[in-house]
Amino acid sequence: MDAVVLEENGSPRLVDRPRPEPGPGEVLVRIDRVGVDGTDREVVGGNHGGTEGAMVLGHEAVGTVADPNGTAFSAGEPVVPTVRRPPGDYNEYFRRGEPDMAPMNATVECGIDGADGFMAEFVAVPSEYLLRLPERLAPAGFLVEPLSITAKALELAEASREPFTWERDRALVLGTGSLGLLTLPVLDERFEEVYCLGRRDRDDPAVELAREIGATYVDSRKTPVDEVPAAHAPMDLVVEATGHAPHAVESVSALAPNGVAALLGVPGDHEASVELGERHRELVVGNRAVIGSVNAGYSHFERAVEWLDSLPPSVVDAFTEHVYPLREFEAALDRDVIKTAVEIGP
Amino acid sequence: MDAVVLEENGSPRLVDRPRPEPGPGEVLVRIDRVGVDGTDREVVGGNHGGTEGAMVLGHEAVGTVADPNGTAFSAGEPVVPTVRRPPGDYNEYFRRGEPDMAPMNATVECGIDGADGFMAEFVAVPSEYLLRLPERLAPAGFLVEPLSITAKALELAEASREPFTWERDRALVLGTGSLGLLTLPVLDERFEEVYCLGRRDRDDPAVELAREIGATYVDSRKTPVDEVPAAHAPMDLVVEATGHAPHAVESVSALAPNGVAALLGVPGDHEASVELGERHRELVVGNRAVIGSVNAGYSHFERAVEWLDSLPPSVVDAFTEHVYPLREFEAALDRDVIKTAVEIGP
Fold first, then answer.
1. Which CDD domains does the protein's record reference (chains A, B) (predicted)?
2. Has residue B300 been placed in a domain?
3. Do A159 and B156 touch (CB under 8 A)?
4. A196 shares a domain with A104
């Protein structure tokens, strides 16, 4: 079967691999589409995850059950696989159904770190790591995984504000990549005003989509993160989806009192001089919080399916516009446009 | 009546002031004891809060109802006043019973910022800002306010970890001041192991008390905050109670995966070079969080009364050992020992 693999210190290649044989409790899934995001580009660039030898790329997948193999699934059902697997034996995080809370040494991540991903014609997936998807959502099913990332981050952010009356007036997303853009319609349902900050020109399709979703675009080349309150308004929620390291501290200054910043991006090293005292005071005196969040658990995938079902059709169209055939996987990996994906199924 | 006031740009002085007349809904309280903490010293030093003209000092008080003035209180009842008041008209935060969530421009703080405190023979307190205290707790009643600070911080920290299984193995308190020390017995009830980090010698009474409570002392001159995991163990909770600005970022590195740092101290300006990328990654990939917390609401004061009731008698003794008569208020303000207080009542 066809598969896109990344070899250590190499470029991704389309290769022939044996079709996997599902073991006990595993479902054979025919992969239909695999989304591409910033993490894939980091992995390909050698800046994140990877594995010894060759690894199949791709972690945002939707497929169809090819062989239920005695599990509760049925042939032909659309399914989405989750990303984390135990790194050998089961551990407490997987036993609890909280693989997303496992430290890095207690998990592998399919297509990202230490395990084969989904950019292949077939994969064998333990049934507990598969979600059913309504048929109508299948064409956009590769958006479930990125939406699950937002679902978890929002759950953590909301939980941190639960002890008091949190005013949800304004939310700001840092980043116009696919995760940032996909977070906008979710926040637009939950906040009075939604803002989106990036480094793109105003006629860029990503910026046009952000505006179509209802977000106010902030060009960070003119208005840096910590100047957003003065230029627009202080934010009750900031979602960091770029992995630009200074954003963690700058976000604190973009927050309204009692606001929370959720960090999703994974930055490289970045040393900088910071006025720590002022940031620290803003956190304390303003009851602000900064929450890191990585990956997502089964419940977040389930919420993501609900969210996908409630996205406006025009937004789904924009996110599924750039789907490339498998042989053009390099275009999907290279092209920086709203969202790209690879089509694998027949 | 006697009162200790701070004049703008002056030193605190014992002066004669007219006894307050309680207005409608206000209770006349005879103050018995007022605790002193780092915030008072910051205020006296001109580094925090203050007011135009003269301000009565003191925000950690316990007193006795002298005149219920038609309220539900009874003469002779021990009471503790809360600290925040509306800065004129009532606002939404006070209406909701969440004055601790008010931004600084929507509140004043008795004895700290913009309103007279409690270091006086009598104060008039609106009944809604008074808590009843069991008679047996009255001698240590000035500990309710600092315990309420910990109660709120712990509530926020716990809420932020509520969506998943938070392992509460180890907690670290940064600071051997009165707030840090008072937090130790509370955490000792809730965590397997408790650590306390400071800059005192091992034979200092504060360090001896920390050990008596059951905490492992960490000398920050030998083991900086971010080296605590290597020297001891990673921490599931860090409580920052010094106001040393670099602690906010250093705390992130002291945390175990899924851990949370609660910041309580209010630092001055402090510019420093920081490896932001690594801290950001630790937050994201480790699902860590940093939570700022200031002041406390009525529910936190109520919890603090319960906690005070459950403190070991030897701990209460240590915290009430250094109570000075009012005329020696300067010793209470100056002396850096476990906890000082001023005795005002007859």
1. glucose_DH
2. no
3. no
4. no
Q: Rounded to an integer, what distance in angstroms lies between the CA atom of residue B247 and that of residue B19?
A: 43
Indicate whether B336 pLDDT > 90.
no
ipTM above 0.90, yes or no: yes
Indicate whether B89 pLDDT > 90: no
User: For chain A, how many residues are written?
Assistant: 346
In the A/B pair of chains, how many CB contacts fall below 8 A? 181
Assess whether pLDDT exceeds 90 at residue B294: yes
Residue A129: pLDDT band with limits 50, 70, 90:
very high
A266 vs B164, B268, B284: nearest CB: B284
B contact residues 221-250, partner A, Cβ 8 Å cutoff: 243, 245-249
Q: Which domain holds residue B179?
A: 148-292
**Same domain, residue pair A114 and A199:** no
Residues B10 and B104 in one domain: yes
List the single residue in A with minimal CA-CA distance to B264.
Answer: A284
Contact A163 B163 (CB under 8 A): no
A284–B263: do the CB atoms touch at under 8 Å?
yes
